[in-house]
Amino acid sequence: MLGRTANALFWMFRYLERIENTARMIDAGMRMALTRDVVASEEEWRSVIAAAGLRESYDARHATCTGLQAWNFMLRDKDNPASVLAMFAQVRENARQSRNAVTGELWEAVNDSWIQIKKLLARPVSEQRVGEAVSMIRQAGTLVHGAIVGTMLRNEGFYFARAGTYIERADNVARILDIKYFLLLPSLTYVGSSLDTGQWDTILRSVSGDRAYRWLNAGQIDAKRIVEFLVLDTRFPRSLAFSHGALREHLAALARIHGNECKANELMREADTRLSKIGIDDVFDRGLHEFLVEFTKMNTAIGLAIAEEYRFHA
Amino acid sequence: MSGQNEFFDEMHVGDGSIRDAYRDYHKWYSSKSAAFLKRKHRDAETSFRRTGITFNVYGESEAEERLIPFDMVPRIIDAGEWRRLSRGIEQRVRALNAFLHDLYHRQEIIRAGRVPQRLLRDNPAWLRNMVGFTPPGGIYTHIVGIDLVRTGPDEFYVLEDNARTPSGVSYMLENRETMMAMFPELFMHVPVETVSNYPRRLAKSLAACAPPATKGKPVVAVLTPGMYNSAYFEHAFLADQMGAELVEGSDLRVINGRVAMRTTRGYQPIDVIYRRVDDEFLDPLSFNPDSVLGVPGIMDVYRAGGITIANAPGTGVSDDKAIYSFMPEIVEFYTGEKPLLPNVETWRCADEDSCRYVLDNLAELVVKEVHGSGGYGMLIGPAATKAELAEFRKKLEAHPENYIAQPTLSLSTCPIFTEKGLAPRHVDLRPFVLVSPDTIDITPGGLTRVAMKKGSLVVNSSQGGGTKDTWVLKD
Predict the structure, then answer these.
(1) Yes or no: is domain B347-407 CATH 3.30.1490.270?
(2) Which of A70, B192, B434, B455 is the most exposed place for a label (fewest CB within 10 A)?
(3) Does B174 touch chain A (CB under 8 A)?
(4) CA distance B257 to B270
(5) Which among A2, A97, A111 is the nearest to B261, CB-wise?
(6) What pLDDT, in 10s, does the model give residues A74-108?
(7) How far apart are CA B333 and CA B347, in angstroms?
(8) Where is the DUF403 domain (chain A) (predicted)?
(9) Which of B252, B264, B273 to mutate against chain A (most A CBs within 10 Å)?
(10) What is the ipTM of this complex?
């Protein structure tokens, strides 16, 4: 496979993951904002923008932050290169780049979704339409994942695509956790009392983890347990541990196909050992922020090692 | 449909009856309800948009990808007619390759005074780097498209030869796929020659032209200028169907005397490259130094037998419109036979007498730029306004050598489906030919292009033309 094609597959699924996470964050933000007064709701949307890593570009263009402004910025603003619309265009471009490395069904899933999303986001998204928009975007993600898992040959292309999904997921979830946690910090000092349960609920919703968490914890909102769930629980498909477990498997498959391990596999092992040895108390002792910064750095290093080993660039 | 139609109609005879080739199809068509046909007509468009069969139009930034309109009524050719056409096409393609070999070697045809020296001297497609070099297998134009038009029952003309990089074959294939998906029962009743093995035939034909440096099974790659090129869909489609890599200039590098592509396992040599990049951009060391679409040094590798480039660089010298007018002489010179397929009568405006005739009869003629393509920069006299004629006259007077003129042909029509039923539209035909050292392989049928606008004679997709599935009936 061409290095350029591997790169396109990898990024196609990184963008797709980021799109899905953006939609989830909007969804969580809406729920939160609905239960707030106007001022608090603005704060909530600002934290959504921050969690999506868009604070700087947003602040450069807007002074206020209503829901309408926030989700339109995240979904379709021409000045936001990380809008859902711009990123889906990237998904499709990458699919076009790697058109002869993907199945017809995968291409059609991407192209169909693109046609719909482009139409959906052609004009500003009102309060009445935002729910529909978010669910359509999530469905597009589900459709594309279904198409790749259900139809694609388990060759290196498949594993580059899957590696893209999990490396991006690990990055996004770590970032959401870091930024939200930072905002919640004051309330953590009140151990066991008046936690802002609404805020924690938002975090769970941002990663579609609210149901799963409730099953496991009988509805008890507990900061430590939530962090443990999102960082260490290997059963939850969007946790850091799960994402890195999956990433490790896919990188191992690539090493098998190529007949040799590379620096990415080595880094992966290192990251894995760290994560498996650590308990939730260690995380808090060391400081969650420090832990997450280190995790993200490692995640980035793995991404760079993949690009280098498999000659993504000339 | 009546006898008032002044053009040859592919389906209907003047008295309202149906030509033999269309009999089975027409019977089927007549048995279908208007609602069924309308629904299928809409389905076709959706299906094309979903599979992403689009082309990009230069100069349209907003709607960057457009669909080529597809018409669901096939154009049908019977077996005997196709055999006659095939013979003529084969003869022409043989002559084109012999002509190219001669031009880059002894130039016998010029010495014999049959083609003037100036046509070479003034031709931007002429490549000095090719002089004295014989490509692997002696083939210059591996993939050829011969544009044919029809004006009467037995009157076919060659309108144009496409010897450098003919495009459109993916539409031929997808049109058939779409037709088979929409009307499976039709193909059970009507015996139609298959076209879907074209990519396999192309791969085989290219592999048969592998260079001396090839070890083992030849590695074939398709070189595309990239996804913003108007024919990118076709490049990707063909690579996919052939099981070949689709490469861009940035994927390639010359290593140890071979052209190699950057794969996830490192650089791997390519034996045959089916390039869809123009000569000028192929090698920045030999041609346009600013090109990023090509491979620095590929021409040296080529000349040393390290790679086959299809079609060969410098092939364009044989298919421009000034050379076209000499094709009857060229066919005769190299085959010793009279051309089986006639040329359209052509006035070379470089000749003073011809130019005067053209200027005197501008309103009746079609005038084309010698080096133009895609229907850009041409004048259709009968359809032009007075102002357009006057403007064109000025251009023609300033640079007569840049133009040729032809009579406005009475192109045959073939019905298309409209909301109001069948309606005649003008068509042409581009059969696709594969050339390897042992065989000339013509895919039955080709691409029928159709002017979707009533009365229009321009079938180019860049000018709003559409396409049809083309059937060659089995014996």
Answers:
(1) yes
(2) B455
(3) no
(4) 11
(5) A2
(6) 999 999 999 999 999 999 999 999 988 999 999 99
(7) 21
(8) 1-310
(9) B264
(10) 0.85
